[in-house]
Amino acid sequence: MNFLIGNNGQGKTNILEAVYYLALLRSFRTSVIDDLCQWPQNSFVLHGLLESAPNPPETLAVSYGSERRLLINDAPVYRASDFINRFLCVTFIPQDMDLVCGPPAQRRRFLDIAISQLDAGYLRHLQAYYEALKSRNAMLKAPDKFPPATIRAYDQVLVKHAVAIELARRNFAVSMNAILVEKSRQLFGEQQLVILKYLSRLGFFLESCEGDEEELTKAYSHGLQHGFERDLKSGTTNCGPHRAELNCLLDQKLLHKFGSQGEMRMASLAMRFALLELIRCRQNPDDVVILVDDVIGELDEQRRVNFINELSKSGQILFACTRIPREFTASAQVLKIRGGKIED
Amino acid sequence: MAATQYPQALQHVMSFFSRLPGVGRRSAERLALAMMAWPEQQTEQFGQALLELKNKVRPCAVCGNYAEDELCAICQDPDRQRGVLCVVEQASQIIVLENSGSYKGLYHVLGGKLSPLSGKGPEELRIKELAVRLRQGEISEMIIATSPDVEGEATAHYLAQEFAALPMTITRIASGVPAGADLNFADAATITMALSGRHKL
Ligand SMILES: [Zn+2]
User: Fold this and answer.
1) Domain with A25 in it
2) Which of A136, A142, A156 is the closest to B157 by Cβ?
3) How far apart are CA A121 and CA A182, in angstroms?
4) Is there a contact between A132 and B150 if contact means CB atoms under 8 Å apart?
5) Half-sphere exposure of residue A174, counting CA atoms within 13 Å on the CB side?
């Protein structure tokens, strides 16, 4: 447990963000790279030392100027997928709310990041899928150059990765829901249940297709063929995992539509705890870095105690706050943050 | 005061070097300066070699491989199996496959792969030439050795579709070539594995 103590605006969140960026090559705060740089500069450099016994320590570095450079142990890495998830980051931050009530794209992003932390192959499928999708959309916009036969050829690649993504996402929802039974009881009390519902949205063919790999492949290919004329008119692919929906339900109630602010907060915490437990079960639990920022103020005392107990089970915790919470009684390292620097 | 510059002739050479892949301004400078130190005879030979590059090497009229005559050495070789054709993206990949020593058939160079994001469609590839060769009926197996990435896979599917009606077997090299890896960097053992483990498309 490490506390980052400092007043607001002193740079605590920036430190968490830097750690998060080293794990996932993206920010939890913004998708605009310029926001990450210290004004008036337009570049940044991050260095990290990763220690995870019994593996030898590893250095990770990112520099972002006119282009992004990635280094592992000082050797350049060219594929982002080889750099991402060298260590696993789980956040408990205000932005987590988006995974319950944010726009569909942000709920999908939670899903994709979470699965990539559990399954190293997932990111490759995701990247290949998006490359094939972008290519397909480019062909739909230039039908003179790319006859339907070229699109059919890309469809085979698209379907292969789409099906892998579908299956991984469905399995993820099943595993999460198994754990959410206990987590919802802890956070909401005896009677209420939070569940994740994954909706394929692969077009009306697949809305309810529960099939295995082979069935999914058939149904999805059929869906693409069926939607071809419409896709051609709109110049974009209308069905696929990029249109899928992840919904959170509390007792059958769609939270992003009908939940109260408090319920959505609790549900997002339940989701994070469920994910943390999944990661602890499947990966080396000590490889997890937990980032906490500004979330426990909203919890009552009993839940705060639960929260801290649950966190402390394993891994490294970076806990940003203005002062150490009363409920925390164990020993911890305390780092004072002021003016963007760690004070001795 | 104007910054001091290299003499024009030296700058000229540097600007050519910097057009090469992977050569930045600094390396171009180093290369050109190193050449300044060469004996005159050597630079003359180098110039001569560059002239011959375009005069003496051209694409093979049949397969697209590098050739010194109308046909390349492989197309001319009477000992090659004429019933097997291996489709590659670039002529440089033929050398890699040849060095593995495990392939005795013919080749066809596509000149790239289907790449909608950079505007490369079937018309920009040597697919018409491939069709002509296949329709002659001598080929009984076509092995597609395009790269294992998204564009290479899609190109393989496209070729398999286009020529599905012809009386021949269409196969794809196995992914003994590690996913995402380039045929250009694979070693002989890997290539032999990929060729022997090919599967029907
Ligand atoms: Zn030839």
Assistant:
1) 2-343
2) A156
3) 29
4) yes
5) 7
Closest Cα partner for A84 from A96, A94, A95, A70?
Answer: A70
HSE (side-chain half, CA atoms, 13 Å) at A332: 21
Mutate to test the interface with A, among B114, B157, B159 (most CBs of A within 10 A): B157
- Write out the H or E segment, with its range, that includes residue B144: strand B141-144
The CATH number that applies at residue A183 is 1.20.1050.90
Q: Among all residues of chain A, which has the CA nearest to that of B153?
A: A157
- Side-by-side strand order, sheet with B106-109: B106-109, B84-88, B141-144, B169-172, B199-200
The band of B189, judged by pLDDT with boundaries at 50, 70 and 90, is: low
Neighbours of A132 (CB within 10 A): 26
CATH number of B3-56: 1.10.8.420
Would the pLDDT of A205 be above 60?
no
| Sheet of strand A333-338: strand arrangement | A88-92, A288-293, A316-321, A2-5, A333-338, A341-343
pLDDT, position A216 = 85
Span(s) in chain B for CATH 3.40.1360.10: 66-200
A-to-B residue pairs, Cβ atoms closer than 8 angstroms? 60
What distance, in Å, lies between the first and last C-alpha atoms of chain B?
67
Helix, strand, coil shares, percent, chain B, to 5: 45, 10, 40
Euclidean distance between the first and the last CA atom of chain A, given in angstroms as a whole number = 17
Q: How far apart are CA A110 and CA A103, in angstroms?
A: 11
Task: Pick B114's closest partner by Cβ from A79, A150, A156.
Answer: A150
Separation CA A204–CA A226 (nearest Å): 10
d(C-alpha A222, C-alpha A84), whole Å:
34
Count of the separate structural domains present in chain A: 1
Shortest distance between the Cα of A161 and any Cα of chain B, in A, equals 10
- C-beta separation of A292 from A318 below 8 A: yes
| Residue range(s) occupied by CATH 1.10.8.420 in chain B | 3-56
pLDDT tens profile A286-315? 778 889 987 777 777 878 888 888 888 777
As a CATH number, domain B66-200 is 3.40.1360.10
B194 CA distance to ligand 1 middle (Å):
22
CA–CA gap between residue B35 and residue B13 (Å, rounded): 10
Best CA proximity match to A271, nearest among A194, A186, A199, A197: A194
Contact A128/B at CB under 8 A: yes
The answer to the question of whether A262 is labelled as a binding residue is: no
E strand residue ranges, chain A: 2-5, 44-52, 55-64, 68-72, 75-77, 88-92, 194-199, 245-250, 253-254, 288-293, 316-321, 333-338, 341-343
- Cβ-in-10-Å burial (0-12, 13-18, 19+) of A191 comes to exposed
Q: Is A307 on the interface with B (CB under 8 A)?
A: no
Helix (H, G, I), strand (E, B) or coil at A209: coil
Interchain CB distance below 8 Å, A131 and B150: yes
What's the confidence (pLDDT) of residue B180?
Answer: 44
Let me know if A147 is exposed, middle or buried by CB neighbors in 10 A (0-12, 13-18, 19+): middle
Which tens digit of pLDDT belongs to each residue from A143-177? 999 999 999 999 999 999 999 999 999 899 999 99
